[in-house]
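Reader question, answered in our methods column.
A reader sent in the components of a multi-part assembly and asked whether the whole thing could be modeled at once rather than chain by chain. We filled in our standard form and ran it. Here is what they sent:
COMPLEX SIZE: two components
ENTRIES:
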Amino acid sequence: MECAFDAQNLISISLRKIQSSRTQRGGIKLHKNLLVTYVLRNARQCYMSKNALQTQRTPPYEDAATVRGRQEYLELTGSFTEFADDFYCNFAGVQSDTWHCGAHQSMAQHMELGHQDASACAMVSPSDSDLMVSEACWSCADKSSWELPISNTQVNQKTVLDLDTHVVTTVTNGYFHSDCCAQPKQPQAAAPCYTRKRKMDTSYYIVDPEFYLPDFVPLSCKRMRSEDDDDDLESDSEQLDSANISNLISVLGSGGLSEFVSWQQMDLEQIFGSQTICSKHTLLAGSGWTRAIEAF
Amino acid sequence: PPRPTPVSSTAIVQGLNLLQRARSITMAGKRKLSERPGGGSSDVQWCFSQVKGAMDDDVAEADIISTVEFNHTGELLATGDKGGRVVIFQQEPECKNQPQCRGEYNVYSTFQSHEPEFDYLKSLEIEEKINKIRWLPQKNAAQFLLSTNDKTIKLWKISERDKRPEGYNLKEEDGRYRDPNTVTTLRVPVLRPMDLMVEASPRRVFANAHTYHINSISVNSDHETYLSADDLRINLWHLEITDRSFNIVDIKPANMEELTEVITAAEFHPDQCNTFVYSSSKGTIRLCDMRASALCDQHTKMFEEPEDPNNRSFFSEIISSISDVKFSHSGRYMMTRDYLSVKIWDLNMETRPVETYQVHEYLRSKLCSLYENDCIFDKFECCWNGNDSVVMTGSYNNFFRMFDRDYRQDVTFEASRENSKPRSVLKPRKISTGGKRKKDEISVDSLDFNKKILHTAWHPLDNIIAVATTNNLYIFQDKLN
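And here is the structure of the entire assembly that came back:
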C-alpha cells in the first residue's frame, strides 16, 4: 500500500517536472526528462504490481454497491493498464515482461468482471467545452474505445515543418486509434495486441528537435487551455491539483495518459461517485495537440 | 632517422609529477609524517587562502558559477558563470622575502564570453551559461581557452599589452586626426610602456554543430583538435577550422521513442590522441579509438559495474547516471562521478572499478525528497590532484570531500565565510548518520541542500584547490612550514 501511494505521488511529481521543463529557459533538457521517465516507469511498475495484488484479495462479503464500485475501478484499471503499457513501452523501448505480466493479470480480471458500457458514457459530463464534449462523446460513443483507448499500435504520427513554406503538417501513417476501437476483446489472446509497441507519437519531450516547430498551437486549443486556466482559478485546491495535472497532461497530449493521471489524482470515492471522470481530463488527441506536443 | 616528437606541455607536467613523486618518496624517510604529500590524509592541513565573489546572501542568478578550471601551469584559474561571463584569476609571483609563501590569485581578465540567444526557428532560448572552460596548452605569449554554452564553442585569446606606440604623424595623442596639411615633419612612432592591459578577443566561433545541449569539451593531446559532446553526439573539431566538424559518435536512435540513454560527459585521453571516453546516463563508460573507424559508435571498451539488486529503488537509474568523467594525469586510470559515489577505473579492467568511494551515502534514504526538490539531478564534478594520489568532489551544505587513494583516508571540509580567516586551518566535518549526534557533528536533516559544491579544481602541480559554492570561489592551500 505504501508503495502504491508513493508510486502515485511520484507519478504526479514526475509529470509536473515534465511540464515545468517545457517552460524552462534553454529548452527541454533531454537528459533530465529521460531520467524522469525512468522514475515514471518504475513507479508505474510498482503501482501495477500492488494493484494486481489488491484485486486478487476479494473480500468474502460485499454489498452490491461495493461490488459495482470495484467493477468500475477494475475497468478503469484495465484501461489504465493499456494506456500505461503502451506509454511505457514507448519510453523504455524495450518491452518488459514484468509489465505485461501485470497487464495480463488485470486484463484477465477485467474479462471476468465483464464489459463496461454505459457506465463509462455516464461519466462524461455534458458541461464541457465543445471540443472536450466532442472528444468525450467520441470516446463515449465508441465504448470499446474506453476500454481500448490506444488499442492499436499502428498509429505513427510525425509532425513536419516545411522549411520553405513554414507549413506544419502532421503525417499519420496507419490510422488513429479511433478507427480500431471496435476490435473485440479477447482474453489472453488479445495480449499480443497490447504488447506491440505503440507507434503513436507520445514522446512529448523526446521529440526530435530537428523537427522542431515554432510554438504553433491552433487557436481552439489555446482557448481550451485558457478555459482550463480560468477554471483553475475558481476551483478549490483539491480540484486545482487535478486541473493542473490535466493541463500538463494536455500538453503531453496522450488522451490515455490523461485518464491515467487524472485517475491517479482521485481517490476511489470520487471515482465511483463522480460523473466527471473524463470531463476536463479527456483531451483532444488529434492533430492540434500533437503539434503542441511536437513543439514541446 | 625517426622524427623527433615535440615535447608537449602535458609531458612537461607529467615529468614534473614524476619528479615530485620521486622527490617525495626519497624525502619520506627524512620527513615527518605530517608533511606527507597528497592532501587527503588528516595529517596534511588545508588552510583557507582566499574567497572571491559577492558577500551578499542574495545571489544574483547570473553570478552562479558554472565551471572552474586551472590552466596547465596552474598560474591561471578561470571561472565561468550563468551570465555568460568568464573571469580569469592570475597567481601573483611568489614573494621573494617569504619563499614558502604562495602568491595570491587576483583578477586578471573578465569578459563576456556568451550572450543569450534566441533560435527563432525552434522558438528556443539558448542560455548563455558557460558549461565548460578548457585551456589550451600555451604556445606563445598569449593564452587560449575554449568556452562553451549549450550550443556554441568559442576560442578566446587572452593577451597582455604593456606597451603602446606614441608619436603618430597623422594622429594626435588623444586620437584625433590631424589635418595632413599641418604635418611638416615626420617622426617614427616609439613604443612606450603603459599600464598592463589584458585583452580577451574571440578568435574562433564554432557554431551550429549541436542540436542538443553541449555538456563537454576536451582538447586533444595533439593540440590541434578538440571534441565537443552533447546529449546524443560527439563532434571532432580542428582548432583552426570553424565551418565544419566531424561527427565521431552518434547514439541517436532512428526512432526517438527508443531513446534509452544519453551522453553525459566526454574526454580525450591525456596522451593518446586517438583515444577518448564518454559516459552515459546509464552509468556506463565507453572508450573509443578513432583509428578503428571514422564513426566510433562501436566502442573499443565498455566499463560497467553491475547494479546491486539490493539497492534497487525508483531512482536507481537517476543515481547511476554519470555526471563527470576525468582521466588521471598518468592516463592509466579514469574517475567517474555518479550521484552518491566516485569510482576509479583501471583502463585495463572493464568489469568493475578498482576503487569506489562513497561521497554521501546517507542520502540514499532521502532520494525521494531529493527527487522532489530536483537535487537528485545535480551534476557533481570530480578532479584529481597533480600526482593522482587524491581525488576530490563536492557535496551539499557547501561540503567537499577528498579521498586519499594511497592511504585510504577521506575527509570532509566546508567552504564557508565563517571559516575564512586568512590561513586558518580547515577543520574536518562529520555528518552524524546514526541516532546519537556527537558534538560538532552535523545531522543529515540540518544539511542545506541549496548550498551545493558542484565544481572543484585542483592545481596541476601544487596543493592548491579552487572550490566553487553557488556564487563564491574559495581557494584553499595546504599549510607550508
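What stands out: Chain A touches chain B at residues 6-7, 10, 13, 17, 25-27, 29-32, 34-35, 38-39, 42-43, 46, 90-94, 163, 197, 199, 201, 203, 206-210, 212-215, 295 (CB under 8 Å). Chain A has a mean pLDDT of 47.
Send us your own complexes using the same form.
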